Amino acid sequence: MSAAKHYLTDPTHAVLSSLRSLTLTNPSLLLDTPNKIVYRNPSSLSQPHNVSVVCGGGSGHEPGFAGFVGDGLLTACVAGTIFASPGAEQVRTCLQHRLPPESKGVLVIATNYTGDVLNFGMGVEKARALGKKVEMVVVGDDVGVGRAKGGKVGRRGLSGTALVVKICGALAERGVGLEDCARVGRLVVHNLVSLGASLSRVHVPGHGIEEAREEEERLGPGLVEIGMGIHNEPGCEKVKTDLPGLVKIMLSQMLDQSDKNRAYVRMVKTDETVLLINNFGGVSNLELGAITAEVTTQLENKYELKPRRIISGTLFGSLDGPGFIVSVLRLADTGLGTGKSLLDLIDAPVNAIGWPRCVTGDTWEKTYKPAPEKTEEEEDETEPSNLKLDPTSLRKALEPALNKLIAAEAEVTRYDSVVGDGDCGLGLKRGAEAVLRVLPSLSSHDAMMTFAKIVPTVEQNMDGTSGALYAIFLNSLASNVRSQDSSSPTPVTTEIWAKALAMSIEGLGKYTPAQPGDRTLMDALAPFVDVLKKTGNVQKAAEAAKEGADKTKGMKASLGRSVYVGGTGFEEVPDPGAHGLSIFLTGIAGAL
């Protein structure tokens, strides 16, 4: 139950410490600790008479919304405890005492949850009763619940709220009046659709292990919940599907006009849009990038919508939730003229911790040349040589050796799981399978042309440290074989191979300090080359490689990931890289 492990177990302390951190990372901010209000230092305001923009809600949605306090976004944020709305008195205190008195009005933005609407609404009414000019925009952008289930409550507020804050904050920064700020805020809400999905529910700091286990069991293994809310609220359905299938369902619920229960915003292919991919907080950047690519591709291919802007990151989180929200905004006309379109306002600069650093509007609008197509002239040309290598004989030597290496994948992986990260076997298998696919195409008797096909194949299909070492070594081997070229056709003899191999091992020393005895693939490679050079006998050289690999069992590593793994696993298994190489070399010797 790793989701139940936290660095802080007191949720109150976690919230207050997090709010305080904003004043440390942005010195222009102040914190009213008792009321959990983050607000801009009055001395930092260059235009204190502009409309003040206030947002807030329960904590746990960081960076929203306290992280959005700053130039071009919010003037202040009122925070509640985790997943709970701030009280009306907190809101009133903010509106009455934490905003510049010169402000020509206050725009309050709240998400459409009962507690937020009631408490912010009460605070607004109290401020109005005291003479403040205040407008309130309630954001409901979720389509997951649907009209039938949502009833009078309406749509829940999701990550689209961040876009409303961005646009209204930019308007206020430009000196636009309160009525227009509120009107445009509502315009954004009416043109906004969002939907979330998650692999699991979140765990709140301070809650017990059993509660976390119950949350996990509610969803079940292998399922993703579509329509899940940002406070662990159940979604509209649970499905078992891959990412393309999930995105297809989500976009259908958001954009299918035949779904009268969820067709809140009509979007056609001529509409300009902004796409926001919001991380709940627990999705890796790697996967978030893949999600962004999948959503963008399906939007363009199925709905013919090519977003003018794409924003991806964590803006409106849900603690450590392994989910994401897709928001699509239709760029409606604000009616405010040049420089105040929704796109202009999205592009407007901000100075706040929580807003992602996006590329500029100028970068988006510039016309770029398409990527040049690869031409034959761009292909790396290999100079022919007089060194001759029979492709049929080479295939007969390599095929069985590569097949043995592929068959040993599980064994090598098991060894690497004990002393490394478990990827060595798969890496060797990928490389071997790729070379096998190339072998039938080998037709030239020129050894350099053979190298020109095999070496890039290894480079492209083997990654990690071992992949880099093999690529360096094979490139060096090709160079050192070529160095023995002559003016007349010459077969590549065992003597040529041995000399080139020895030179390549020496060259490898420029890039790695690995030597026999360090528990690496060098423990198999070095003895093979040494014996081959001395005897010219491939079988004896392969036996030396196997003996060297076997000796790594019990050998303590001096290099590689095994150094960090620790434990006593090295006493039980040989080095996976050396073992895999010895299997390959033994396979070649057997074939010859």
Automatic annotation (TrEMBL):
Belongs to the dihydroxyacetone kinase (DAK) family. Pfam families: Dak1 (PF02733), Dak2 (PF02734). It catalyses: dihydroxyacetone + ATP = dihydroxyacetone phosphate + ADP + H(+); D-glyceraldehyde + ATP = D-glyceraldehyde 3-phosphate + ADP + H(+). Catalyzes both the phosphorylation of dihydroxyacetone and of glyceraldehyde. Keywords: ATP-binding, Glycerol metabolism, Kinase, Nucleotide-binding, Transferase. One of its GO terms (cellular component) is cytosol. The active site is at H231. GO terms for molecular function: ATP binding; glycerone kinase activity; triokinase activity. Residues 392-590 form the DhaL domain. Transmembrane segments: none annotated. This is Dihydroxyacetone kinase. The keyword ATP-binding applies. One of its GO terms (biological process) is anaerobic glycerol catabolic process. Residues 364-374 have a biased composition (Basic and acidic residues). Residues 10-355 form the DhaK domain. Substrate binds at G58, S59, G60, H61, D116. Pathway: Polyol metabolism; glycerol fermentation; glycerone phosphate from glycerol (oxidative route): step 2/2. NCBIfam families: dak_ATP. Residues 364-388 are annotated as: Disordered.
